[in-house]
Design a protein that fits this description.
With about 375 residues, this protein is an alpha/beta fold. It folds into two domains: about 190 residues, 3-Layer(aba) Sandwich (Rossmann fold); about 170 residues, 3-Layer(aba) Sandwich (Rossmann fold), CATH 3.40.50.2000. Helix content is about 40%, strand content about 15%. It has a six-stranded parallel β-sheet with strand order 2-1-3-4-5-6, sandwiched between helices. β8, α11 and β9 form a beta-alpha-beta unit.
Length: about 375
Amino acid sequence: MNFGYWESKMEEAGNKPIEPLKILLIEPFYGGSHKQLIDLLMQSYGSDEIDLVSMPAKKWPWRARTSALWLSTVLPQNADQLFKTLFASSVLNLAELVALRPDISRLPKKILYFHENQLVYPVRKSENQERDFQFGYNQILSSLVADQVIFNSLFNQNSFLDSISSFLKLIPDFRPKDLKDKILPKCAVLYFPINFSDLQLQPHKKDRIVNSGPLHILWPHRWEHDKDPQLFFEIILKLKTDGVKFHLSVLGEQFSEVPPIFEAAKTDLEEEILNWGYLSSKSDYYEVLGSADVVVSTAKHEFYGVAMLEAVHHGCYPLCPNSLVYPELYSENYLFNTPNQLFKKLKHFCKCPDVVRNCEIELDTRKFSWNSLRSSFLELFS
């Protein structure tokens, strides 16, 4: 935080107005894609133009429930004299923060960025879990008090807005109406920017000799239930049972509760596995992407999909569900409607790997790059 400098400037100025610091970034869950976006924004401004208050990316539910209270105690007083713009992810309950801190509410522009939305987040019905109403409710309240509401995809925006009415029906009585009409005029879509410059690649061009040997299948997602690893491994094990040859890399972040299917699959697929587990080194991670032929998503919850786009940028052929955000980003060639369709496509590619190795992927990933999107993000703060 850079607050001491600005508070000292205020003391020097006395009662005279000073030129406010331009941007205040708030990220209660500073990790993963949230961190990537914040870091890109920080790199685009000088230290005297932007400041960041963040919390580590741990215990997401508690960040969503309580971060506003902690933030209200650490942000400098008279924030409206220091900052012109606030930018925060939708993990923050912005409504609580501006209620606790009226000076924050007076900022000319308060921007909320949705990496995901909790109104349609899947729950584990098999474990009899119920949706936590508070998370979605907080996001609705935050959208009402924000000046601009930015989504990382059209699917994210529409699924949020179209679910408000049905979501609020969970309230037993005295339900508010027409909230969608109040939020919609503030909304816009701005794709999450991927720093492809780190990759040192042109779209879809491999940085090594084209593969030979068995098809290399990649699954690069978080090891959580909403990515449906159960379905993925069922299909992969069926391929093995049918006697087709392939190699497998399973990457992605792991958290405290890892679905048990991973341990079982690691044993059952020991002969096929080339890479297993999270790779902290970007260069190592990109090397695996560059060696794979097909990247697969079986997600039940996806509003954008950075890992898929990174893999496609490296030349991997994508296979995605014909649902969620995927039809917005990928043509029908890369979509499947049923698990059986996914199985048949993978089996065909395993038998004829050159089909995917020699094809040109119909997706220009450069439009998702930081180089392409940077000016649009910076315009938010103008």
